[in-house]
Design a protein that fits this description.
Helix 7 runs antiparallel to helix 8. The protein folds into three domains: about 120 residues, no CATH class; about 100 residues, Sandwich (Immunoglobulin-like), CATH 2.60.40; about 170 residues, no CATH class. It contains eight helices and 26 strands. The radius of gyration is 32 Å and the shape is elongated. A hairpin with a 2-residue loop joins strand 14 and strand 15. The protein is an alpha+beta fold. The protein starts with a strand and ends in a 16-residue tail after the last helix. The protein has a five-stranded antiparallel sheet with strand order 1-2-3-13-4. Strands 17, 19, 22, 23 and 26 form a five-stranded antiparallel sheet that branches.
Length: about 450
Amino acid sequence: MSRVFAARAAGSLVLALLALQLAFSGDPKDKDDPKDKKRDDTAKPYKLVILVETKAKQTTEQVLETLLEGAKETGCRFDGEPDIKATPAAFFRLLRQLENQPEPEDETGKKQNVTMRPSLDEPRNWLITIREPKIGALLKQLKVTFSGKGTTRTYMPSPPDSESAPLVKTLPGTYVLCLAKDRTVGASEEPTSFEATLATTKGPKKEWPESGGVSVGRRYYMVTFTNFDGKLEQLFDFIKDKRNVANPVEDAAADERLQVVFATWAQRLPRLAGEFDGFHHWPQFRALPKRQVVRVWILFPLTKEDAEKKLAEYRKVKNPGKQLVQMIRKDSPVIGKDPVTIGASTKAQWIELPDASGGNLGFFTRDLQLQNFHELRKKYSEAYRLVVYEFERLKEGIPPSVSNPNVAAIEVPDPMSKKDEGVFITAQPVSGWSSALDREADREGKLPKKKNKDKDTEK
């Protein structure tokens, strides 16, 4: 289990510091009693990640110097050199909110209701944040004064999808000013101050100005120690003491009340093996990693055009996880394990592919017996199917049942899209369909014989 150590500092080099202990595997007593912050000397090494917030002028060398000096003097051990990388400010601020830590004051010592600071992601982007917005408050206008000749420019907010507007709204109370989109701003010009006009959208209409100086910004870094072995409390105590380091951290303290769990929903669809054996078509699906798949549904057979049309219809449902499985059951699906006959006149139907791994829920298929290959090939030059993986909450000793109400569609990545987006129903071409039908139709003598000058190959 991951543990989070949070520390808040003020004043000197490091303004705030969070340490994340990953893959904790120390003494079992430490796990049972998170209030006990003393680590056993026999604890196994782990990966330590420290998030650091500094003032803009502080360097990575100064950050590492303070941490390394503290680690050395407190007997901490680790492999190689620590790695330091820039990290997005939004991630750091999110953790600070989870710890209920207030936003620090700006460099002038004033807590502004509206702040403007440089973005870490893009050097010419500036973040405008309404710290304490009133109910329904939004940014109506932004006047920015620049260095050099003191030119003032006025910007009006645009929606997030605007590609040309310099000022866009990204989140409630958060805006981004992209100077690269304003060709009137010189490369050497930098914002020095601003005046924001806020407006209410609820209740009586009201507008009021909020002005302030531009923050020179803060920098956020992630420092990683590999195979760290040491006592964090002692390390923090050492780097807090101004008698020990040139740039001390103030009020750094381990806090294990916040736990972080890393989870992923993204899944990879398993690859399909060969699915044809004579006139038998065996659609094959393996279980998804870390998912309990109880059955697979396919809507088959479909042309490419029909598959695209049906896919669009099914993806319109508001709650696909539940509604899809309900719609399938209302559409008279072919359930069970018996062979299913597929011919040229067969209409597309939902077909259940049950577990074929002896109750291990690892493999799903069914015998689809194809008829009249020539006519089938003529109607479906390419065959498509819609696919839904289904979860079912099982009870011990009771086998899976389509009538069980505790079912839901499982979210998977869309194999037809380059984007890593989750969907609950996918469209797939049937691999090897044309060649398999051509081969079987030729055996039936339904395909016209091809002319071939080679007598050895003529029939």
